Amino acid sequence: MTTTSLAHPRAAVLLAPPKAPRRTRSPWVWRCLVAAIVVLALATRVVYSLRHSDVIDLQGYDSGVYYSAADSLVHGRLPYRNFLFVETPGIAVLVAPFALLGTITHDSVGYAAANLFFTVIGAANAGMVATVLRRFGLSAAIFGGVFYAVTDVAVQSERFIKLEPAATLLILIALVLLGDVRSPARRRHTLVAGILLGLACGFKIWYVVPVIVVTAALPGLRNRVRLFLAAAGSAAALMLPFFLAAPSAMFREVVVDQLGRRRTPVTVMGRLHEILGNPVVPHTVTRLLGLSVGEVTGGLGVLAAVATVFVLTRRSAGLYVWLLLSGMLVLFVAPSFFDYYTSLTSAPLALVLGVGFARLTALVSTRTGRLALTSSALVGLTLLNLPGQWHAAPEPQPSIGLRRAVLAVPGCVVSDNPEILAATDVLSRDLVRGCVVWPDVTGWTYDADSGMRDGVYTPRSKNQRWQRHVTGYLTSGAAVIAYRPETELDARSRRVLASGPELFHDGPWTLYATPRHTPA
User: Between the CA of residue 307 and those of 403, 474, 514, what are the distances in Å?
Assistant: First the structure.
């Protein structure tokens, strides 16, 4: 006798070797499904942008940094050689066409187009998650795609110019090309996947971790070597020209400065909560059940662990677990941590949960039951994430009066937030005039003006080297807008900037003529 009986008939569903999932009968059904997920993802990101700020105006400091770096590149200024830039150059290259558009038309037009482009990339990522999961069945594709479309950890970083959305898209396309990594992929697919993974490293250096994980997962030494060499070649093609122009500066800014950053005071539990959940969970669940943030995070961890067990029963999906775990490790040990960093893990998390949910629905015997379970899960995902997107705190936007006042300045306009220069249409004008433009103003506090000395951190407000340096920059033009609180100008620096006549004031916006350019 070779037959084996199981105590529970449903246990066979989880323990049996994976069967080929049933695909949709019509390719049009599948295309409509992916299109619906993409539209849902696009809608959530646009709604978040409209509630948080404006689709065409200020979106965030980092977005202004990347657009300003791209515009500087368009005007012949190289990162590392001509200006400080603490990231790999991929984002500046990708945004350069939009900066060129802004130069030809208006900076605000190019900036708005770039932000909308990254919103579309985020929506495409949701569709790609569903595409990766297609071979595990419709329930996996639907749940994983919708999770990525609506979850706040993905939405909050995919509505404006960021490093992570484009890198995530490249990795997801590579996973589609590789398919089931246990089976030998076509040589052409392996090469293209390697190229895409290498380009992802050009947006952020820590994407070398997914490259290593995917390479290790491939069967056969030749496939691994082929993928790794393709990744190394594309990364070198993107970054080597900038490195050769300023080797020591690029290494210092991209590697040394990043590793030397002060550790963000976010605990491991707090980081885990951001990775697994979203900022709105404590506000909704805690009020209903009286749970603490730690308890909510622990519950999310249990759910993710259960999903991981389900996924591991499908060995062909094990790669997604390793991508998730390695990404979590990077986020745990990284010195700095911000909520949008979770883009590194949001796609692998969606893949793990998608496969896990498909295995869970396999326990339901009736088609009606599976449909009810899937519908309930999708509605729950949407309702859980909707409050965080709907109640986003709005950002103040430059008024028409400020734009007119800035454009009326005959000389260079300087700001501690380059996004304001783009939104008021003077960024390209300043670059053409040869003005000093720092794309990343506070980036200097990770480099020459670092507050870290012998393991002791000095805040920017008390860092006199930083105060002298930034005040010198802000007074280098004919007029200045010092707006960003994170610049942490001390009282003396503020007095210096305010010693010139006030050219315009409206709410949080004040335009001063700088002291050295004060008209007689």
Answer: 51, 52, 59
List Cβ neighbours of 422 (8 Å cut-off, separation of 6 or more): 64, 67, 68, 71, 102, 107, 108, 110, 111
Number of other CB atoms surrounding residue 515 within 10 Å: 14
Q: What is the pLDDT of residues 284-330, one digit of tens each?
A: 444 444 444 444 555 555 555 555 555 554 566 788 888 988 998 89
**Chain centre distance of CA 24:** 32
Q: Comparing 68-77, 105-114, 132-141, which segment has the lowest mean pLDDT?
A: 132-141
H or E, element range at 272: helix 268-276
Q: How far is CA 164 from CA 278, 341, 343, in A?
A: 17, 8, 6
CA nearest to 115, candidates 73, 69, 165, 151: 165
pLDDT of residue 388: 56
Under 8 Å CB-to-CB from 95, ≥6 apart: which residues?
A: 66, 67, 69, 70, 114, 161
The strand ranges marked E within 117-164 are: none
- 422 with 67: CB under 8 angstroms? yes
Spatial contact of 412 and 481, defined as CB atoms under 8 Å apart:
no
* 143 neighbors 354 (Cβ within 8 angstroms): yes
Longest distance between any two alpha carbons in the chain, whole Å = 104
Own/partner pairs for 112-116, CB < 8 Å, 24+ apart?
Answer: 112/55, 112/56, 112/57, 114/67, 114/70, 114/161, 115/49, 115/55, 115/56, 115/59, 115/63, 115/159, 115/160, 115/161, 116/55
| pTM for the structure as a whole | 0.86
